[in-house]
Amino acid sequence: MLKGFKDFLFRGNLIELATAFVIGAAFTTLVNTFTSAIIEPVLNAFGGKNASQGLGFRIISDNPSTFINISTIINALIVFVLTAAVLYFLFIVPYERSKHLIGIEEPENEETDKDILADIRGLLREARDDRPETRPVADPSDG
C-alpha cells in the first residue's frame, strides 16, 4: 500500500489531480489548524531560553528579526505529509479499487519515449540509406 502512495506522489492522472486539488484545498485548512494548535505548541516547548519564539535560533543574537523558526518548517512538513496521506488513503485508494471492480483497465502497451525515439532513428537511417550517393563537384576556379 505504501508503494501505491509513492506511485501516487510521482505519477500524474487527471482525475487524481483534480481530486487532490479540490479536497486538498479544503483539507489543508483543517490540518493547518491542527498543527498550529497542537503540534506547534509542543515543538515550541523545546525552544530553549525564549520559548515564546518557538523552536529555532537567532543568527544575530541581538536582532530578533534574524530568528529562524524551525517549528514553522516542521509544521509545514507535517501539514504536507498529513494532507497527502489523507488524500491518498481516503480518496485515491478507493478510486483505484473501484476502477478494478468496474473493470476499467489502464492501457498496458503504451509506447515510451525510448520506443518513439528508436522509431525516429530507424526512419532517419532509412531516409539516409535511400538517398543516392553524391560526390563533390570540382570547382573550375580552383584550377
UniProtKB/TrEMBL annotation:
GO CC annotation, single: membrane
Protein's membrane topology: Multi-pass membrane protein
Keyword tags: Membrane, Transmembrane, Transmembrane helix
Membrane-traversing stretches: 12-39, 67-91
Subcellular location: Membrane
GO MF terms held by the record: mechanosensitive monoatomic ion channel activity
Pfam families noted in UniProt: MscL
Primary localization: membrane
Official protein name in the record: Large conductance mechanosensitive channel
